[in-house]
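[stage:ingest] chain + small molecule (nicotinamide-adenine-dinucleotide)
[stage:ingest] validated
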Amino acid sequence: MERYDLRTEPSGRKRLSVPYRGTRLLRHPMFTKGTAFTLEERITLGLEGLLPHAVSTMDQQARRIYASIQRKPDPLEKYIGLAALQDRNEYLFYRVLLDHIQEFLPIVYTPTVGRACQEFSHIFRRARGLWITPEHRGHIADVLRNAPFEDIRLIVATDNERILGLGDQGAGGMGIPIGKLTLYTAAAGIPPWQTLPISLDVGTDNLELLEDEFYLGWRAPRLRGDEYDSLVDEFVRAVKARFPSALLQWEDFKKLNAFRLLDRYRKALPSFNDDIQGTAAMAVAAMIAGARATGVPLRNQRTLFVGAGAAGIGIARLLRETLRKEGLAEQALTEATAHMDLQGLLVEDDPTLDPVQRPFAWPAARAESLGLTPERRRDLAAVVQAFHPTLLIGVSATPGAFTEAAIREMARHAIRPMVLPLSNPSSKAEARAEDILAWTEGRALVATGSPSDPVRHAGREHRIGQGNNVFIFPGVGLGALVSEAREVTDGMFAAASRQLAAEVRDEDLTAGSLFPSVTRIRDITAHVAAGVAREARMAGVAGRILDDDLLPGVIAEAMWQPAYLPADPAPATALGASPGSAMPVFI
Ligand code: NAD
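[stage:predict] done
[stage:export] tokens:
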């Protein structure tokens, strides 16, 4: 493991201590500046003759590489090009990503990352992150010791079973933790050397992968039951021992494991599940902002969910807590939402309900009183006709689930219906934004999970907001880290959601968008982080108490900037081995 040493001069200027020279330095993605090394640095760092003469500015490098990535016609080729840049030069990668965040977010994350996961074993170039398989049982802590850097603060771990809406992707799911951590660095400035993507590769039940000769994962059916639980348990203990200051994000686990692991470990180490809690904060923020736009207070909105999985239940839980704080009584809380899953409307006498769905089921008598016979409960348009939702949320990963009949029916009862087909990638969305606007005569406020182009309807352009968790999880992570939170509470997500809603400007809403522009992501993240840190302090889980007036400065200081630093050879002590590293330096 390596250390990454930044030094701050008395003037406040930062400098980088470089433990390598020559080609090894040039090829190190965290230390290299490529053609931007100055002539003096080339002398002190053994680079003379290894680079063409001219010294580029970072801006020139960024424009050069952007032009080359733009020339690639296919999004997956762009993904491969950007991943290769990330493997070569991380400073430059983040500079290019931040300069073109709107354009590249759909490449480094959904929808393109979905294809990258599906084709992982065929497009594989270079390994990133750590894979833990059942063969590492008993020495997972040793495997963690192989992480590239020693001061890890943020881990995203998946067991690959529910990758976006694409199901079990086996080892290919690694694209998601890598992508999520990339967004953490882009949005929250978490230094790349403090992040670690981890795949808990416990096998796959995806037969196509098991039969693919190129498949790179642990080729076996998924581990289940006690064997699975004990492996995860050892992993958590190893993380606590190796990286005691790290925050762990559970990512893309299948529903019941997602809830189980969240509940089991949330007090054992600072941890959260973005699919459940991050999605919830993102969606509730849109609801709060939408209430402003429609003039109908949140407590008077009726929300219909299509999909009662991790995302649907996560959103429902936070919405219920938010409404409870607004003073809604228990019966009103039950009546404020309706939930559909594969079997149709969830009602209490259904023996197939799982424990996380049960609290949101309607009494069967209520369904009957609204004319929803067991037959009609399966029909979205019929449920809409009975319930009159003002808000429709799609988290079912079922394309076409929002039918024209259902949306037209919704528009008969709501002046400005809010329709959020959130399933990812775009191929799984419940409906397309342009269809929803057409079926509602342009009255709907639409947000999609993956990016959508603006839609022209009746001569008016509608901006389609992206319900992207990137507005939430980087701020939650940063807020938790700066406040050294012992636990990531639901209240911290509620705070994040209120803060994000406040970031939605009137001009966003007027343009038709329930979300702010992603081009403001760094500012938004800083504000979300401040809200989260404040809540951590008030909830008594902060290890570092930061007063409100100090918070913005501390957060700004914590956010890494992708700008090259003056580089010096590591101090003479490094002539042996760099601290904490088995690697010789100055070779
Ligand atoms: P999940 O598998 O836990 O839940 C999906 C649920 O939908 C399951 O309960 C399933 O039975 C149900 N379902 C399937 N077909 C249905 C149908 N025709 N009608 C009603 N219900 C149906 O998955 P999840 O984590 O809840 O994610 C669901 C989708 O939401 C995925 O596509 C995911 O990418 C997307 N998502 C988007 C965001 C975002 O936009 N920011 C965040 C989280 C999840």
